[in-house]
Amino acid sequence: MRSHEAIKHAADKVGVKSLAASLRLSQALVYKWCQESDPNDPDTSGARNPLDRLAEIVHATQDTTVVEWLCHQAGGFYVKNTPPTKVDIPTELLVNTQQLVNEFSQLLMTVTKSIEDDGEIESSEAERIRQSWQQFKSMAEAFTIACERGRFQNGQQ
Hints:
- The chain is mainly α.
- It folds into two domains: 3-73, no CATH class; 84-148.
- The protein is 62% helix and 0% strand.
- The chain has helices spanning 3-14, 16-23, 27-33, 50-61, 65-73, 93-116, 123-148.
- The longest helix is centred in the C-terminal third of the chain and has 26 residues, at 123-148.
């Protein structure tokens, strides 16, 4: 999904008029954000939107703090995908699923160790749980990418 499509999708939920009023902007500007914009093509009618600008900040700084903040504002958190060139999973599907289950088991063991001593999870223990969770998600993402690329179809590598 492209940035203007994402903004249009969000605007369609409440209506451009309502969104513009909430942002204290003109409806025309919000409509422009919902249209494709290309600085190299003067015939496109869209305007650079906040998502494009956010992407430019990330690219210019090579820092994802603003994305992490935005994800937090939306009730979630940012997890970087494993780069496609670094998906290093053995080709056997069974081995991969066992690795995935093992990572999940490690996560559960981390949680269990955190609560078994006193029945509470302290902030340092929560940090270890977060790290284990991030490792599990990274492994699951790498596995999913391998599946999407057909790595487990017809003996392909």
